[in-house]
Amino acid sequence: MKLSIVIPAYNEEATIAQLIELVKKVDLEQHGIEKEILVIDDGSKDKTVELVKGISGVKLIVREKNGGKGAAVKTGIERATGDIIIIQDADLEYDPQDYYKCIKPIIEGRAKVVYGSRFLSEEQRSANRFFLKSKLQQGKHPQAYNLAYVGGRFLTLLANLLYWANITDEATCYKTFDAKLIKSIKINGNRFEWEPEILAKVRKRRENILEVPISYYPRTYEEGKKINWKDGIQAIWTLIKYRIIN
Fold first, then answer.
1. What's the CATH code of the domain at 239?
2. How far apart are CA 55 and CA 47, in angstroms?
3. Mean pLDDT to the nearest integer, 114-121
4. Which of 72, 77, 152, 183 can pair with 171 through a Cys bridge, CB separation 3.0 to 4.6 Å?
């Protein structure tokens, strides 16, 4: 069995090499699982492509123009050859050591879609609150963090109301899919709205989304965090839109 790790990257020269090193260190062979690492560069203007080219064992796919995270993810899904596909951001917010937690339910046939939740364990919830409190006390972008947190919680609530998703973390990066399922779903969104879109389409196929607890180390806007309030509005509209149309 093979796990394809799809890494969309845009101007991630500061973290991409370290992230790939962490991905490589994940030992899945003990479970009989092969890893395929795909980096989809989304028109980076920095040294991301140059750095990845110098790393062995990685499939690099270069998109000449920046199209957005969703566009990069779609390219990665199309090119992935694994039985299971997981999405991995190019920063260091998520721990690749959580991969087996995310893929185990799919291997065991208990689910075809698994989300790694940042809100299932009390330890991680406490860490989330500490990070948020510290940012609200600082001078740079304090309300942006509060808005991002509240927005994420609202999106999860809306997803549960509209699609009976029964999840705690709609916006998590660690979305894991049975490859045949995700490849059979047409994704239209090219930015962050691909995430609520895929949730809507998975649930409309009556597939359950199983969650597992994961670790999370949020980065700051100074470190390159890209999502903003406009993406939140687009995500809300996406959830509503796909409730009405197919």
1. 3.90.550.10
2. 13
3. 91
4. 152
Give me the pLDDT at residue 99, please. Answer: 98
Domain that holds residue 180: 2-244
The conformation of residue 97, written as its DSSP 8-state character, comes to G
Q: Provide the pLDDT for residue 126.
A: 66
DSSP symbol at 29? G
Q: How far apart are CA 117 and CA 171, in angstroms?
A: 9
Burial of 220 (C-beta count, 10 Å sphere; 0-12/13-18/19+):
middle
Asked whether 114 and 176 are in contact (CB, 8 A), the reply is yes
What DSSP element (H or E) covers 36? Answer: strand 34-42
The reported pTM is: 0.89
| Contact of 112 with 47, CB cutoff 8 Å | no
More confident residue, 123 or 86: 86
- Sign, CA dihedral 9-103-34-200, equals negative
The DSSP call for residue 113 is E
pLDDT number for residue 149: 67
Does residue 233 have a pLDDT over 70? yes
Which helix (DSSP H) or strand (DSSP E) does residue 135 occupy?
helix 122-136
Name beta bridge partners: 86.
Answer: 5, 176
